[in-house]
Structure formats: C-alpha cells, structure tokens
C-alpha cells in the first residue's frame, strides 16, 4: 500500500508550499506530485520551488525524491502561452507528466496522456505483458477493449493546429478570462483567487 500525504490548503496559502512539503517527506517518500492547474482555484502549483526544496532536502539528508507533474489542465496551456515557466522535464527530478487531452488539448472526452522522461523512468512493476494475436505486448494501460477515436482526434488536432494554432486558441481563452475578471470586479468587492493570467494559472476566474 502507498500512504498518501496531502498538503491541505489553508487561508492565504491555497497551494503546496515547499516548507510543508518537506515536512511531509521522509526516507519512504516515493514522489512529490504538484498540481499544475489546481481544480479548486485555477492557479498553478509551481514545481520549480518544490524542486529546489527537494534538492536542498537531498543535500541535507541524502534522500533523493522524484516528481510527477499532474498537468491535467496546465499541460496543454503553459507550453503555448507561458513557455518561460519551468515546470516540465527541464527540471531533472521530473520523471513523468500527465495531461488531459480532453481538457485544453481539444480532444474528445476520455483522452488522457502520461509521458515519462525516458524508458528507465517507467517502473517495470507498472508494465503488464499480455498475449495478443500470438505475440507478447507490454502495456501499462487499463485492460479491456476501448475506442481509439479520441487518440485519432487528438492526433488530427496536433497536425491541423500545430504549435501556432494551439497558441492562438489558448490565448483567446485567456483573453476571455481577463475580460470576465475585469467585468466581475466592477460588480462588487470580491477577493479574486484566480484572474485567468497565463503566468499564474488556467484561463478561469475564481473569486
């Protein structure tokens, strides 16, 4: 069994901060998972400060901890509208990234992606060897038949839109979010948690 240690939100700190993260780590910790696009707030949990804290933790204790980035929302946003945010494999501790193609990847529902830094980063314990049409196939997906239409649709969007097209689409979403934030601010004395800025989170408004 794997013990899940969550870093709860608290007033004024609606994200996983390095200090509390390190306090939850020990010699049995197998990974740290920031959410790059928090569902409740819309903001990013920036991996860079957590990564730096883990570097210091290793220097102090000798304990080496990897990271997985839950980029279900931000994975199809930041590369196109905020490329200077260092959140991905540019950070050496990041061994895997997951992203939802059916969110901001513009694919149909049910399309999700997970990528590893390299083959060595994928634990063999996660790979199942199955017999298929007389041969052995290694898979880490959920078994049973499932449609491939979502994957084909995602591939089509990659080819049709490319980097330039995705950049235009995502920028348009952020423009709408900025407009909504400005207009909502005129309605009353609201405290904004997320204003839809591309350097802070997803194109959403939370107040």
UniProtKB/TrEMBL annotation:
<feature type="modified residue" description="N6-(pyridoxal phosphate)lysine">
    <location>
        <position position="103"/>
    </location>
</feature>
<keyword id="KW-0663">Pyridoxal phosphate</keyword>
<dbReference type="InterPro" id="IPR015421">
    <property type="entry name" value="PyrdxlP-dep_Trfase_major"/>
</dbReference>
<comment type="function">
    <text>Converts glutamate to gamma-aminobutyrate (GABA), consuming one intracellular proton in the reaction. The gad system helps to maintain a near-neutral intracellular pH when cells are exposed to extremely acidic conditions. The ability to survive transit through the acidic conditions of the stomach is essential for successful colonization of the mammalian host by commensal and pathogenic bacteria.</text>
</comment>
<dbReference type="GO" id="GO:0030170">
    <property type="term" value="F:pyridoxal phosphate binding"/>
</dbReference>
<dbReference type="InterPro" id="IPR021115">
    <property type="entry name" value="Pyridoxal-P_BS"/>
</dbReference>
<dbReference type="Pfam" id="PF00282">
    <property type="entry name" value="Pyridoxal_deC"/>
</dbReference>
<dbReference type="InterPro" id="IPR015424">
    <property type="entry name" value="PyrdxlP-dep_Trfase"/>
</dbReference>
<comment type="similarity">
    <text>Belongs to the group II decarboxylase family.</text>
</comment>
<dbReference type="InterPro" id="IPR010107">
    <property type="entry name" value="Glutamate_decarboxylase"/>
</dbReference>
<keyword id="KW-0456">Lyase</keyword>
<dbReference type="GO" id="GO:0005829">
    <property type="term" value="C:cytosol"/>
</dbReference>
<dbReference type="GO" id="GO:0004351">
    <property type="term" value="F:glutamate decarboxylase activity"/>
</dbReference>
<protein>
    <recommendedName>
        <fullName>glutamate decarboxylase</fullName>
        <ecNumber>4.1.1.15</ecNumber>
    </recommendedName>
</protein>
<dbReference type="InterPro" id="IPR002129">
    <property type="entry name" value="PyrdxlP-dep_de-COase"/>
</dbReference>
<dbReference type="GO" id="GO:0006538">
    <property type="term" value="P:L-glutamate catabolic process"/>
</dbReference>
